[in-house]
Design a protein that fits this description.
Mean pLDDT: 82
Strand content: over 45%
Radius of gyration: 42 Å
Structural class: alpha+beta
CATH superfamily of one domain: ACT domain
Number of strands: 22
Number of helices: 8
Largest sheet: 5 strands, antiparallel
Order of helices and strands: HEHEEHEHHEHHEEEEEEEEEEEEEEHEEE
Strand order of the largest sheet: 11-9-15-21-20
CATH class of one domain: Alpha Beta
Length: 406
């Protein structure tokens, strides 16, 4: 008797107790009673498995050898079927579930989007919903027509395929490759100063340098000209180079002096809702809760099978009541945070460079901490500005400007 046969026909697990359980096993063999899975615990106790139809026979034969046979467990498919027959509602539910599995194959329950990077998934799902591809809708659609309509609705896509497997649709998309900026430089341009400063170093690759080390420059001043003067003619080029200068920044950083803290009272409320697609069915819970004095924690458990997720979920919302209290922030911690914020803000203003010496003045008013700072930096201040030719044509007032010729 193998395991499959034993499971289909059912078997009983017997405990044999006696002075000589071996004689009981020999008698079962002589009488043709099959048994398996013999387990010995000690010299007087054995465990065996026999078919359900032979259970009573095995108990009677064990008594003939002065052994006690007790049934420890009964298992098998036949036992399950007997229990199911006594529960007609369960059988009816199983039959309805099997029927629904076949009937619901023609409905869309799960939509999965793959291949998108720049285009958000919600954009694709909304465009599909506008075309009738949504949860609960019929799965009978023309794939080629959906593809053409989606490419028109979402111009960022260059290809789309909607593959259906049961109640799940997998939408594969390919995004359109956008043309990259060529990064061409203007035909002519000057390098100007982005801020006031004192020139410390420079490296010029193209153009006519107009400043030297130690010169003081102002914001907007031309540092390297894109018009090279050769005496007899001018040559227009795109100035290129790096110019570093000492610059100065000053300002203030402010933060509140008091921090708001939450003190939980220990009171909690729970709400339970059933989510079916886009529908929400409230099961139980209190809806008259003040959101301003409670934290909201949402836990969603979805109905899943291996490789398949149904649009059915149980949502549990936990509301935790709290009160607010104010706490004075530690001055040393606040000062370090404000100094870090000032350095980050100053570095963000520079294309390249370093922060040198910084003087801080830290103070507190009634409700805020204030950090006043002055920083000396060495940064690259050159910025490229194109040189445009003079416009010759019609002005805004309709007057034509033309070259005068002798």
């Amino acid at each position: 008797m193998n395991r499959l046969t034993a499971y289909l026909t059912g078997e009983a697990r017997l405990s044999l107790t006696g002075a000589s359980p071996q004689d009981c096993l020999n008698l079962l063999t002589q009488e043709g009673v099959p048994f398996r899975s013999v387990e010995r615990t000690d010299e007087m106790h054995y465990y065996i498995s026999v078919p359900l139809r032979s259970e009573k026979t095995a108990v009677r034969l064990a008594a003939r050898r002065f052994c006690t046979a007790e049934t420890v467990e009964r298992r098998g498919l036949s036992l399950l079927l007997r229990k199911a027959v006594r529960r007609p509602a369960l059988l009816l539910g199983m039959a309805a579930a099997i029927a629904l599995c076949f009937l619901l194959q023609n409905r869309i329950w799960v939509i999965e989007v793959k291949g998108n990077e720049r285009v958000p998934q919600e954009v694709v799902l909304r465009a599909l919903a506008a075309l009738g591809i949504r949860q609960g809708a019929s799965a009978d659609y023309d794939q080629q027509q959906i593809k053409m309509q989606m490419l028109n609705a979402v111009p960022e896509l260059s290809w789309l395929a909607a593959n259906r497997r049961g109640g799940k649709i997998t939408v594969l998309v390919t995004e359109r490759v956008l043309p990259q900026e060529d990064g061409k430089k203007p035909p002519a341009g000057n390098l100007i100063a982005a801020s006031d400063g004192i020139i410390t170093d420079y490296s010029i690759a193209e153009g006519m340098r107009l400043v030297s080390r130690g010169d003081t420059v102002t914001e907007g001043q031309i540092l390297v000209s894109g018009l090279e003067d050769y005496g007899l003619c001018l040559r227009a080029v795109c100035a290129e180079g790096e110019i570093y200068a000492n610059t100065w920044y000053d300002g203030s950083v402010v933060t509140p002096a008091f921090a708001q803290e939450k003190v939980y009272t220990g009171r909690e409320w729970r709400e339970f809702s059933l989510l079916v697609g886009r529908k929400r069915i409230k099961i139980c819970g209190n809806s008259g809760i003040s959101v301003g004095s409670c934290d909201k924690m949402v836990n969603v458990k979805r109905l899943r099978l291996p490789g398949y997720a149904f649009p059915i979920a149980l949502e549990t919302v936990v509301w935790r009541e709290f009160t607010r209290s104010e706490r004075l922030k530690d001055p040393d911690t606040v000062r370090r945070a404000l100094e870090y914020a000032w350095e980050a803000q100053t570095c963000a203003k520079m294309v390249a460079g370093v922060i040198g010496q910084t003087n801080y003045r830290f103070s507190r008013s009634d409700t805020v901490y204030v950090l006043r700072a002055e920083s000396a930096c060495n940064e690259m201040i050159a910025r490229l500005v194109p040189i445009y030719g003079k416009y010759e044509g019609e002005s805004n007032d309709g007057t034509d400007y033309q070259r005068r010729t002798d």
